[in-house]
Amino acid sequence: MDALILSRLQFAANISFHILFPTITIALGWVLLFFKLRYNATGDAAWMRAYFFWVKVFALSFALGVVTGITMSFQFGTNWPGFMETVGNIAGPLLAYEVLTAFFLEAVFLGIMLFGFRRVSNRVHTLATFLVAFGTTLSAFWILALNSWMQTPAGFEMRDGVAFPVDWWAIVFNPSFPYRLVHMLLASGLTVAFLIAGLSALRFLAGDRAESMWKALRTGVFMGAALIPLQIFVGDMHGLNTLEHQPQKVAAMEANWETRGNVPLVLFAWPDEKARENRFEIAVPNGASLILRHSLDGVVPGLNDYIGEHPPVAPVFWGFRIMVGVGLAMLALSWATSWFLWRRGAMPRLLAYAYAPMAFSGWVATLAGWYTTEIGRQPWLVTGVLRTEEAVGPVAASNVGFTLAIYVVLYIVLMIVYLGVLTHLALKAAKDGDQSPLPGVEDRALTQPMAGE
Fold this sequence. Notes:
Blueprint (H helix, E strand, L loop, with lengths): L2 H40 L2 H34 L2 H35 L6 H30 L4 E4 L2 E4 L2 H5 L4 H29 L5 H35 L1 H8 L10 E8 L4 E8 L2 H7 L19 H31 L5 H7 L5 H15 L4 E3 L3 E2 H4 L5 H36 L9 H4 L8
Antiparallel strand pairs: 1-2, 3-4, 5-6
């Protein structure tokens, strides 16, 4: 393999591993704030037990997100110098805003959130939790502003091959940014909802019937059931926005070769780029036209209009279907479980067995969606401005291959450890139940609703 392919694989491996952890911390911070506010309002110590369990998950995920984010940023200078040379005037400030306004906010108040419950007033601890949650969302805001600008660039002008900002409002709020931001925030919410419900289901299967487990389980299940319809709606709007600004990406997602009306919705196929056709196709007549144009005879762009300018079809086509398939599974499971919890106040063991392996289903959907988005932008690194091959640096392929191997091995080890720690935490919590002492919490549970100390 040449340096370009290896550099792409290395960045893909790094960002694939990195994105898993912000996807958890963005929404989990707000869930922790919810747990804390419920404790403040009710004085029920079970809410703080849920808080203390999940704040450990937050801290571990935050740490891994920081470490992998740092190594990823190094690659802009080592493997992709052309990126910063061409669009650094825009990418640099956006990345700096993320560090200055979001990362520092999280880092400063994370310690209070983790260790300050018995050392600061209740109001200060609640405020720290809010600021950490706000910081994670603000971080997502700036990163997605940059990523969206790379997809649909606006508010700049080119001078001697270098992009210069002329309208920061247009840069940040570029055409795809609102859809991409909301889509990602909902994806984070769904990831956390199923993680909470999944690990709580594992505790349930291990014999845990503690009130803190039930509170977390209900939170995860109802949160997932509420968010998945919203995600489907926002995803449809995002798809229509992509159709307007990146039609070749939508053509690859649908594996549609000819621009025409009455385009079927391809459920299954093997796209053959060499023959420019789909093999083993199973499709719903007029389905793609109806979804994308809201008309049975709506015209959908075809890949043959973008020969040499469209992304590789198979990974975009399958990435999109994996994301949608996982989303439909989330919808069915969360709604079925919500019905049992709402009407019967209990969770059947069969659904618990289904939820446990779904704990990380949000990761699968997020990665599939991310691959659809990023591979679907090819051959451009910044659409219409900078091609991927133009940004790669003069690094020897052997060097890139060596560091790629180290990254992959390290990430596999870290993932095994991470999953092992979460499983250990869940099983230990199931064993302890609500019996372990929490000094300072039980006394508060006997008081009136907490307004501060």
